[in-house]
Amino acid sequence: MTDCLTGTGDPGDPALIADDGATITYGQLADLVDRACAVLPVDVKLLVHLPFHRTTGCIIAYLAALKTGHAVLLTAPDPGQYEPVTDRYPADVTVTADGCFLLGDGSGEITADCAVTPHHDIHPDTAVLMSTSGTTGSQKLVRLTGTNIVANATGIVQALGITAADRSLTVLPPHYSFGLSVVNTHLLAGASLVVGNYGVTDPEFFTRVRQLGVTNFGAVPHMLDLLRATAPLPAAAGALRLIYQAGGKLDRHKTVAWAGDCDRLGIDFRVMYGQTEATARMTVMKKGCAATHPDAAGYVLDGCSMTVRDPAPDGTGELVFEGPNVMMGYAHTPQDLALGVMIDHLDTGDVGTVDDDGLVTITGRKADFVKIAGLRIELHRLQEMLSEKGINSLVTGDDSGVRVLVEKQTSVTDGSAGPAAVRKFLVDHTGIDAGHISVAATGVLPRLANEKPDRATADRMVAQITGQAEKAEQQQVASPEKRVAGQLERILGVDGIDFNKSFAANGGTSLNQVAAAAALTKVCGTLPVGWANEPLSTLLPDTHVRMAPWKAVWIDSPVIIRMVAAFTIVASHASVMDVTGGAHSLLMVAGFALGMFTLSKTSRTQRLSSVLRTIVSVAVPASIVATLGVLFTGTYGLSNALLIHWLWEFPGSQRHLWFIEAYMWDLGLIAGVFCIPPVVGSYRRHPFATSLALLAVAIGFRYALAFDVDILRWDPAGVLWLVLLGLAVLNADRYPKKLLVVAVFAVVSRDYFWTEQQRFYVFVVLLVLLFVPRLPVPRILLTPVTLMSSATLYIYLVQFDVLAVLSYGWPTVMVSIPLGVVVSLAVNRVQARYSSTVVRRSQKPQRFLRAHTTSSTAD
């Protein structure tokens, strides 16, 4: 599909013009691409990491990787920006600045006879992967197809009228969707591209443009500001006929000024609008319309549509885009690379209108509106008002107030437009009380590497400069980060939280996941699917989350499953209802959690340490309860206290703790298997297939032991298949895999359970785990739900002693559940205090050693 990027130009016409003046024709480009293709495997789909330098070699490598059907991960050239991405998505192949293909680990150059083993299962249609933010190292990737790329390039070529006679230059970074679209459109049109590190801060920029015969170039708003300051439009434009702007809304008065200046020189100035999720462009303004419609974003590309969802009386609402350039979907984890098309339209998050002629106007972002003291405030409009006064600013805020960061060189233009004057101006023009407006000045406004405004940094700078951060601390209004850190330190029993790591990497396990999810949900709102393996920094909100008590928050379905299972287990044992299957369902959830929290860790030591912590956290309280039963109530026997009843039955022992024993021994066995390097390697490359293979072995045990019903249904070997079924559920990331897991359960569960009701119970839990990753819970019920869910172990343990005292009936249920919760809270507090003490003691010698080493070196 992407072959047309190199196949439309006349073989003798220039395609790429290097920094040194060397020209590559379309005929030569096709040969160079074919030569590069020759060293890439064609029998497997690889992840090719392209740190996109502005070189002809990188463009050739990009085209070759597309032509051979591989997935190209485009990033900034700076390792500091791309390493967070490549750490999560290890590349099979990486590209050098001059376009050479190396093995993903950089160990050597790829040759035609190299055998490269892919790290990932990638959907066949995936062609390009890009960070949502272009250059900030976001680990959430946009998945694009070859059809997306060609369709978008075709639409832009038609809208801008780009022909083979045109020539642009790489003034925009090509790893950024806007910059990549310039490359794609010019190659598709058979036009030429001047390749090099060109910048608009060069006073001779337009001289270079004229000398190189450039007919068009693209820019983001900040670049246009820099051009006006350092390299204003010349009196003679040369071949330059077109300037197009995207990458953020250009203020109205600036649009009018640029359109007027360009028109006087015979240059067409176009405003465009797009998002990476739409492969780049969605709308383009028609020729000559920028000056007459300075607020508009243009008309939708051919073959696409833009509609307004739930329009207000004035016609404004969220813009929804449809077209062949809409992405396949996001990738949050490596497993998501295997997904196909997940969406058929794009919810842009932008608010605007579409008039009867199809003209799209953007009025703001959904997240750009705040309500302060009853006033609905549009932050972007405040920024525009300041811009019209000649003040460059970034305006952020929330329902607690507006925060404005102004650029010093523009804030003193009229001698009185400093922070105090800006605050007064906003008070006079908005009606907001001065106490809700904070203004600070800085030398240069912060920007991302793609030249877009860095609003998060600006917001922090205002808080820091104005002293709001210190004031908030004094008022004990902790930031979301501090609140999360405090909660997780308590839950995990550690002295510090690394927000660049996930909950699991910070020491989280399946046993403390529920408490952590509850704490995070209260601060961050609804958590994304797979949150436990996402960096904690990506979960934090910009502001405090405020929700009505009955507003639903979505929590992981295993939390609800555990709560329901705890209730049905106790209720069944107390004979108030006959609903069995809870314990077997919890074993399946245990396998699911094992894969999420333990097997995801990279080193054997980390995996063993995680499993050992989990086993100890289960075994110690279970053994204590059983020992007390041996000594005082006669509820248990010695084999229960030693948790070996499945292996050796002592007089007086009961089967009450079969679930604890199976859980503990099965987790230990699986952890041992994952100490075998070939198993770990296979799981890294093919997690679902490896899970199925292990499940098949466990099913073999299940049938081998079928002669003994007790072993089959109670003992670790007999229930091992359920634990591994949970692991397979975790890795079933596509519908065919999910249906295969359902089929396996349907076959293997026949004649396994005591009743069809029990089998149906476990089957429903399986379906929820597979197809319903999250369930809604009213916020007011979040705490009791999560408390009960996290106390499942202790509810299970205390119920038998309560039964011994109260016998059967609802009183046993009503006492066992709250008693289990109280015991859970007490044990967790003791564990956290003990862990924190151990951490502090272990850190003291290290601090002394560091201090001693430093002083010795200084001497």
Structure report:
The protein has 859 residues and is α/β, with parallel strands linked by helices. It has three domains: 4-362, Rossmann fold, CATH 3.40.50.12780; 373-474, GMP Synthetase, Chain A, domain 3; 582-777, no CATH class. 47% of the residues lie in helices and 15% in strands. The strands form six sheets. A nine-stranded mixed beta sheet has the order 11-12-13-14-15-20-19-17-16. Strands 6-5-3-4-7-8-18 form a seven-stranded mixed beta sheet, sandwiched between helices. A four-stranded mixed beta sheet has the order 2-1-10-9. Helix 6 links the parallel strand 9 (167-169) and strand 10. The longest helix has 49 residues, at 810-858. The protein is globular and about 100 Å long. The termini are far apart.
What is the number of independent domains?
Answer: 3
Q: How many β strands by DSSP?
A: 27
CATH class assignment of the largest domain = Alpha Beta
Shape: globular
Instruction: Compute the separation of the termini in Å.
Output: 66 Å
CA gyration radius, whole angstroms = 31 Å
Which helices and strands, and how do they pair?
Layout: H1 4-7, E1 14-17, E2 23-25, H2 26-37, E3 47-51, H3 56-67, E4 71-75, H4 79-88, E5 93-95, E6 101-103, E7 126-131, E8 141-145, H5 146-160, E9 167-169, H6 177-188, E10 192-194, H7 205-212, E11 216-219, H8 221-230, E12 242-245, H9 252-264, E13 268-273, E14 283-284, E15 296-300, E16 305-309, E17 317-322, E18 329-331, E19 346-354, E20 359-365, E21 369-372, E22 375-378, H10 379-388, E23 393-398, E24 401-407, H11 408-411, H12 419-430, E25 437-442, H13 455-466, H14 468-474, H15 480-492, H16 513-524, E26 552-556, H17 557-573, H18 582-597, H19 604-633, H20 638-641, H21 658-673, H22 677-685, H23 687-704, H24 709-714, H25 716-731, H26 735-748, H27 756-771, E27 774-778, H28 779-790, H29 792-806, H30 810-858
Parallel strand pairs: 1-10, 3-4, 3-5, 4-7, 9-10, 11-12, 12-13, 24-25
Antiparallel strand pairs: 1-2, 5-6, 7-8, 8-18, 13-14, 14-15, 15-20, 16-17, 17-19, 19-20, 21-22, 23-24, 26-27
Helix pairs in contact: 2-3, 5-6, 15-16, 15-30, 16-28, 17-18, 17-28, 17-29, 17-30, 18-21, 18-25, 18-27, 19-21, 19-29, 21-25, 22-23, 23-25, 25-26, 26-27, 29-30
